[in-house]
Design brief:
This protein is α/β, with parallel strands linked by helices and 393 residues long. Helix content is 38%, strand content 16%. The chain is built from 14 helices and 13 strands. Helix 12 runs parallel beside helix 14. The termini are far apart. The protein binds S-adenosyl-L-homocysteine, iron/sulfur cluster and FE3-S4 cluster.
Amino acid sequence: MARQAKTYFIHTFGCQSNKSDSERIAGDYEARGYAEAKDWRVCDELVVNTCAIRQSAEDRAKGFLHNVVTFFDEQNIPRPKIILTGCMTHHGHGKIYEMLPAVDEILPINEVGFNQAAVRKDSITRGGKKHAWIPISAGCNSFCTYCIVPYSRGREQSRSLESILTEVERLVGEGYQEITLLGQNVNSWGLEKLGIGFRKLMMEREDFNREDLPDNQTQYLQPNGTPPFVKLLQALSSFPQIEKIRFLTSNPWDFHDELVEEIGRNKKIDRFIHLPVQSGSNSVLYRMNRGYTRETYLDLVTKLKAVDPLITIGTDIIVGFPDETDEEFQATVELAKTVDWKVGFVAMYSPRPGTASWRIYPDNIPHTIKKQRWEVLDQIINKDNLQVRPKIV
Ligand code: SAH
Ligand code: SF4
Ligand code: F3S
């Protein structure tokens, strides 16, 4: 009798980056001859792909592992091998084994990489098109003061153009028509070598002369100063089979004018743009180190609508950031009434150990106030727009 293949199961928490990583982890298992189990209760190896963006996300992973352990203990059968990966791995091996004793092994995110072939199991969109997530960068260099991602996923690293094109060529051959490019800040694709401070300086100075860049860096902005991400969009749009291109996520501070123009011109780019604002108050944006103001955000929205009035915009907002006053919150409420966001993922501030805001500011807005502020914004932004409202608190 043929020996049955060993099985794996992946339980994924968190954002699209994690979903995409899980597709590549599945690819690695299948390349090693494993088959996917129908359920975590019947697998040989269980991968738990975790999120650390808020305490509630970490608690969900802990709760899941608790259920797994309880299930196997009650049945009195041995558990599968449990492998922890994703953004909670930044806690380090020692702390994870102490916090989550059920974990047998840790898979650091950077070992997942870009190049393992992905197993795409749910790739058909509602429109019946074949759709693929394509990671174009890993990590983040923006260091928003509240955010764990630069620590959990490390410094920004762009995937090479060749590697992206090779994957898209293969997908096109398999009949894919839609792609979503993934990165924590897709606008900065190919620019990480310039350094964040330098790029901010460049964006802020109208008289900035790109010729002044040191030689080894000009290649990222030439020819004609077109940002690399715009060139990437152009290269991917040139595949006739690709009908739609989406991207997630864009930080408004380096949403170049060239990118706005490209979106206006290139109708393969989806008309929905996700543009997280986080707050409508300049003093809060400053404390968050977001690198833009309410005015520049509004300016960007105006520019996008001007290149194509059909463009719609979504956003993320954090309520209850340390020291957020009623006036500061009202500035966000007013912005929500001004900008016609189609969807808003509103989150209550959660201090993340190790981040700058956790170091500098006490988490001094009571939970009841955070919840009230969450309700107010959710009502304004989401009540008329969605049949299924986002439930991120
Ligand atoms: N790179 C993306 C965001 C990734 S995290 C961007 O910059 O837009 C997704 C969202 O989680 C963020 O936009 C923010 O609204 C929220 N978030 C991040 N850290 C948080 C924290 N410490 N507390 C509450 N919400 C947080
Ligand atoms: Fe976090 Fe800011 Fe990077 Fe987004 S841009 S992942 S919010 S540090
Ligand atoms: Fe995504 Fe959560 Fe990590 S939002 S980048 S899985 S911390």
